[in-house]
């Protein structure tokens, strides 16, 4: 199991956030293509390294500061590259939602990204200690994208409010 906490300000990246959604999306797209360059197109990816890099990149892109920490706990394991990449996109959308909606200006807290595997399924969980989603609030674009990507993989995304914050759990069948 690999665990890492990412905080842009403490990593010396300067705590300036990338405000433009299109710029963050371009960074995410470049990150998603990086492991699949023509010279190194693996059949499987090490998800621990992949999600740790994603969390570090997201912390940098959002300029996480003001006490917001992004943690990543990943069971070591290899996944088919196509599945790992989609899981990365799902995690990116869910983390972005937590940052954008869970932590109003000046509010600190934590975002935890966890991945584990059972004999029958892969489980991705993104949980935050933010303000939670107000009852009756419809799913926004990020949650709809994450749900669609999960469905493409034959899985299920469950959104739940927790005592302090929100939790999204993605369950994908192992094939």
Based on the model shown, name its key terms.
alpha+beta, Heat Shock Protein 90, 6-stranded mixed sheet, globular
> Any idea what the radius of gyration is?
15 Å
Largest sheet: 6 strands, mixed
Instruction: Please identify the top-level CATH class.
Output: Alpha Beta
First and last CA, distance:
22 Å
CATH topology: Heat Shock Protein 90
How many strands in all? 8
> What is the global morphology?
globular
Percent range of helical residues: 25-40%
Give me the CATH superfamily. Histidine kinase-like ATPase, C-terminal domain
Give me the CATH architecture, please: 2-Layer Sandwich
Q: N-to-C SSE series? A: EHEHEEHEEHEE
Classification by helices and strands = alpha+beta
Question: Biggest sheet, strands in spatial order?
Answer: 1-3-5-6-8-7
Strand content: 25-35%
Name the average pLDDT. 78
Low-pLDDT parts are 8-17
Please work out how many helical segments DSSP would assign: 4
SSE topology sketch:
Blueprint: E1 2-6, H1 21-33, E2 44-46, H2 47-62, E3 68-74, E4 78-80, H3 81-102, E5 109-117, E6 121-128, H4 141-152, E7 156-162, E8 165-173
Parallel strand pairs: 3-5
Antiparallel strand pairs: 1-3, 2-4, 5-6, 6-8, 7-8
């Amino acid at each position: 199991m690999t665990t890492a906490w990412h905080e842009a300000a403490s990593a010396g990246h300067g705590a300036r956030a990338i405000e433009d959604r299109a710029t963050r999306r371009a960074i995410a797209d470049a990150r998603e293509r990086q492991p699949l360059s023509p010279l190194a197109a693996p059949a499987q990816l090490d998800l621990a390294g992949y999600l740790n890099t994603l969390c570090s990149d997201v912390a940098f892109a959002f300029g996480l500061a003001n006490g917001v920490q992004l943690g990543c706990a990943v069971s070591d394991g290899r996944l088919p590259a196509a599945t790992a990449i989609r899981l990365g996109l799902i995690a990116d959308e869910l983390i972005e939602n937590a940052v954008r909606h869970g932590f109003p200006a000046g509010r600190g807290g934590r975002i935890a990204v966890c991945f584990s595997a059972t004999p029958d399924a892969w489980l991705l969980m993104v949980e935050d200690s933010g303000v939670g989603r107000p009852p009756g609030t419809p799913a926004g674009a990020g949650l709809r994208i994450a749900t669609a990507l999960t469905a493409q993989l034959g899985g299920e995304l469950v959104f739940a409010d927790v005592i302090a914050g929100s939790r999204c759990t993605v369950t994908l069948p192992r094939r």
